[in-house]
## 1
Amino acid sequence: MRRDLGDGYELDDDPRRIDRETVHRYLTEEAYWAFGRPRGVQDELIDGAARVVGLYYEGVQIGFTRTLSDGHTQSYLADVYVLEEHRGRGLGVELVRFSVDEGPLVDTKWLLHTADAHDLYRKVGFTEPGDRLMERRS
Ligand SMILES: CC(C)(COP(=O)(O)OP(=O)(O)OC[C@H]1O[C@@H](n2cnc3c(N)ncnc32)[C@H](O)[C@@H]1OP(=O)(O)O)[C@@H](O)C(=O)NCCC(=O)NCCS
């Protein structure tokens, strides 16, 4: 599934198109939650994902999401990023919307963790958890 966002930007959920080296470099060097994640682990996470979405500018990977899901009831959104030089123009919201709302997992219950991008996720329907959600931290 692909969506043209105009101005050279495009979303695509074809896993074969993911630039694994670029995604791994960003996540391990820039993302606070994945510092030091080995390349082999990152490859396994991509291979085992229900869906990976790439955000591309003129064909070059500039953003990413990874979704774990049982395919029917529960999905979890992870490893969301947009490269810094492309931020602030609505691409993050479109990337998350495409990952969550456009595709086979739209009717599942979605979960995610974030340290600071709460406003972005609120725009796509995420809310603070109610008293039914519990977490066991690693
Ligand atoms: C979070 C991230 C993906 C947002 O990408 P982006 O393309 O700049 O997002 P958008 O331009 O679509 O932002 C849309 C809205 O989200 C909100 N938002 C975006 N980033 C935010 C942040 N870091 N903190 C709080 N709100 C944020 C803004 O309120 C913005 O609303 P506005 O347009 O009314 O100002 C990007 O900043 C990023 O990759 N950050 C580093 C990695 C990260 O933190 N990922 C999320 C971890 S779960």
Note: Residues 97 and 125 are 9 Å apart (CA to CA).
## 2
Amino acid sequence: MKYTGTTYRPPYEADSLLLQATVGCSHNTCSFCSMYRDQCFKVESLEQIEKDLKEASTWPRKFDRIFLVNADAFVLSGAKLKAIGQKIAELYPWCKTIATNARITNITNKTDQELRELRNLNFNEFTIGLESASDNVLNIYNKGYSQDEARTQLLRLRKAGISFFLNIIIGGGGIKHSSEHIQDTIDMVNDTNPDLIYTSYMHFYPGTELYEEREKGNFVENTVRMNLKETKDLLSGVNVSTNFFGLHTSNPVPMYGVLPNDKEKLLNQLEEGISQIQDSVLDNIPQTGVEGRLIK
Ligand code: SF4
């Protein structure tokens, strides 16, 4: 199998066959992200993709789920994605789902007809790094789309029958934009009904623009307590049926449940977790690398 550079996948894709369709990230300028800074964006050839599919089809395990990597493989044209889907149908007739990372702008460049055709080829359950639905936060992050654009494109995906998982960054607006970050994101979740919400907590990586802004005092970071309150507000505000996946290692209180049935259980779990963290930790900014190990 060919993988170029570091390959990232969400934790819930651990059992999927990772198939390289692109290298790096076509955007690669989000102000908080350092994941693909050392990679030039490239499109993988159909010949190589076919070679990889054939190689993995000889393994004892029959993959019924394939996850296209890297950062935004859905940037490929509808025609190329259909060719990949057809090749998978030919070589993996048992494959039920072709999942992928997608940026909001990757959806914009597909027609409704293309989205339906891709759904018919088993494209489904896309992971989308929304991060926030606040226009101010999206601008700070240089995500390259607005709240309105995100809502429009997510509803187009849903109309085509393609379900999706949204990444949300807790603490992503800092102190200044905390309220709108969470409220706009709750509204987006309730309007578009993702099948899963994947929360991670704000991290600052040296070499990124946002790290520099924080160093200069232009982005004031939440304390751990504020971040946990954002999680509580998010959980309380979501009123659609969805999976709440708070198991990224950056979550100080790891949680997973299905909303709305598990809402009270998760809120209690959160309160219980907070009660076990020392005040000196809660009232300070998060220390990168120790989250998930704060509970006594
Ligand atoms: S956050 Fe996603 S879209 Fe933005 S630069 Fe990183 S990988 Fe690319």
Note: The chain has a mean pLDDT of 95.
## 3
Amino acid sequence: MEKYAVIIIGAGASGMMCALQSAKKTLLIEASDRVGKKILATGNGKCNITNDQILAQYYNTPLVDKYFQQFNSEQTLQYFAKLGIFTYADQEGRRYPLSNSAHTVLDLLLKALSLKSNVTIKVNCLPVQVAKTKDGFTVATQDQTYVCDKLVLATGGNSGTQYLDQLQVNYKNFLPSLMGLKTTKNKGLAGVRVSNVRVRLKDFNEVGEILFKEDGISGIVIFNLSAHLARNNIRTGRITLDLLSKVEANNLLRMLASSVNHNPHYSLVEIVEGLLHKSLAKNILEKLSLDKKLAQDCTEQDINALVNFIKNFVVDFTGYADNNQVYTGGVDLKDLDTNLQHKQVQGLYCTGEVVDVDGVCGGYNLQWAWTSGKIVGDELHQ
Ligand SMILES: Cc1cc2nc3c(=O)[nH]c(=O)nc-3n(C[C@H](O)[C@H](O)[C@H](O)COP(=O)(O)OP(=O)(O)OC[C@H]3O[C@@H](n4cnc5c(N)ncnc54)[C@H](O)[C@@H]3O)c2cc1C
């Protein structure tokens, strides 16, 4: 049996970070054919590494705070700069590599890993059984059994549940989060993007860009709503959209009345097209049965109905779209100590999405992966 001081299962963002810090004889096990593959898909291929505003309020639990005090976004940027990865921030504080390419991040992380003589990487390697022993752990793959003193679970969301079960570790069920929503048909709206939409559902209230699909709705603000829904296990419901959140209802009323007065021969679709995407104008007027009406026939009541519809556009969602970015659920931070070691299973560490920490869109999830990987890696350094 090959013996290692540390075995890390999962070579994604947090597993790589952890291996980079480890100074002991370490085995990094990856089930797929490539280390860090997911990083290439992040941030639409640009990799939104972190955010300048990493605050607990953007996560599902305030307990993350004490971990960010150990390794925050500024320290992450310094760390990456030392690896040769330099970044810029957009208006929302989202940090991307200057190259605008996720390949930069992965390539330079891999380069740094390749220089670590204490780290052995095995790809296409799937552990089938992990067990706690008196002094450490055994990790059995289909071909071989390894022994280690410390075990790090860094398999990402929902992929390492069998190991948690084998080690009899409690965890909250993993549920997909940060994804689009399926909706009833959005007639004629597929591909329409609308900026500055206020999205409301119970206590969720956020403004952002949305993208209509034939039977779905997407965009960062919808992803963030999905996180809220996933955490509360809400799968169907009614979202209200204010399609012109920057225009007060009174002003909208005045604009529409003025346009109707000045352009009596316009159709109402043409009147509303002055304010909203034409497809939305059509969709709304059809729903109000006003699509055949001319401005000159438009009543005060019609204008009031239009304002109300634009400010309270209803979308019924019927489920979650596929391709979630993260999972909510995992090992509760309350069961882990300040170094992310399990309080009941000595020598077991959890990082990244294995822990019940999930953030909204904007670099928050990768930051958690870097932070948790760094903290555990530092612990394994001694
Ligand atoms: C399309 C997409 C875009 C995203 N964009 C962003 C973004 O721009 N910014 C941001 O902050 N977050 C983003 N995220 C989320 C972010 O990528 C994850 O939160 C982060 O990668 C989690 O890190 P992790 O180490 O926990 O897991 P992962 O990075 O998922 O790594 C887990 C690794 O473990 C391996 N593995 C799984 N099971 C096993 C097993 N049984 N044995 C061995 N290996 C195993 C996997 O193959 C994988 O390589 C995005 C996610 C997706 C899907």
Note: The two ends are 24 Å apart (CA to CA).
## 4
Amino acid sequence: MQFLKLRLQNTYAVAQARKKDICGYAPHTKNSAMPDIRNISLNKEKTVVEIHWGDDHKSSWDAILLRLYCQCDRCVDKICLSSLNEDTFVQSVKLDTAPTDNDLLVEIGNDIFDKHVTKISLTWLRLNCYCDLCLNNAIAERQTSFVDPQISFIPSVEYSRIVDDRDAGLFEVAERVMKVGFCVIKDTPTVEETVIKVAEMFAPVHETVTNKMFNVRIQPGPRNTAHTALGLCYHQDLPWYETEPGVQFLHALKFDEDIEGGESQFVDLFQVAEILRKEDPEAFNDLARIPATYETIDYIRAKPAHYETLKPHIELDYFGNVVALHWNPGVEGTLRAKGDDVKKYYRGYNKLLGIIRRKELEWAFRMDAGDIIVFNNHRMVHARKAYSSKENGQRHLQGCYISLDEFRSVYVTLGESLNREVPLFKVGNKSSF
Ligand SMILES: [Fe+2]
Ligand SMILES: [Zn+2]
Ligand SMILES: [Zn+2]
């Protein structure tokens, strides 16, 4: 298969809002002028300051938050929520008239400091506005957008790019993983443990039950389907950990020409979950509620293992946003659900499985020797087609994992240092942000 570089679209309209805690409201990124203040008022109970901006937007700031986020010299880094009085109210509010400051000044009743006036920059208040519109905008910006495998090239970066300009090359790999869910690094050396060397350019390798590095090849007396030539159905690795390993690196040391089959397959679970939510909300809600069981209990293997955990296939956060997904039929344990939920669970399960198997969602390609696939194990399910060889051809992969948190941090900080746009996509770390 011919690999071509994915041309990433620079259409991240609100990327510059990334440094803001909450608000990603597009017109108020760092390059935008702040709107004027039309009016500032208090609610009847004097617990909320309402700011009516010149562009018609309205922000409501609870007095307790204004006090908590005070930016005056006395408060910065010296106050925490537990030190605030609960019955905080507003005694007075005004704008700083100094032309350069542009601050809101608020006198809070029952302040813990004597003669204290809360001072907060208006720019900060607008950028951190937590109204429904701003919160929804911020969440929408972080949604992963589905990249259609039917019309897109396999996302890839030449290894020589990393050799020539390490920061730029690593960022380009990370950017594709963040946007699409995976990326292929082409033409790395076909030398043992290269996968560890490349992974550790991003972050330390995370040791698991499969050790620092694992081999995927036919082995005698296999205790894992990965060590046969059979097909592997869609799964995420190691879901019986509290949190699955975040980013997987898989290096094709050998993938001989005469091997038939063995193609790698990927599907974006975020896309799958949103299709399920749209097509069958009841199944979606059931799978977000009823836990699946994942386990590996094996006392016979060289390093005995006893791992088990319960978690639903779909995890939602406070906002109802899908923030984590879990799928691995190969290591499911006994369902531990209440009787009424058993039928509902399997109904939802079959619906989800049916969507995962849709051909139009599937990336399928054959690795070349030297390829390293880097993928987000929280977002993508992966699979392998069965393979065979008439001439004793070898297929040998080596793999390892690193932390998704570390990987995302490298993506953002490298992007910043290279002055690239760094949209913060949802990654499946149980958080919308
Ligand atoms: Fe796997
Ligand atoms: Zn203060
Ligand atoms: Zn707002």
Note: Confidence is low (pLDDT under 50) at residues 1-31.
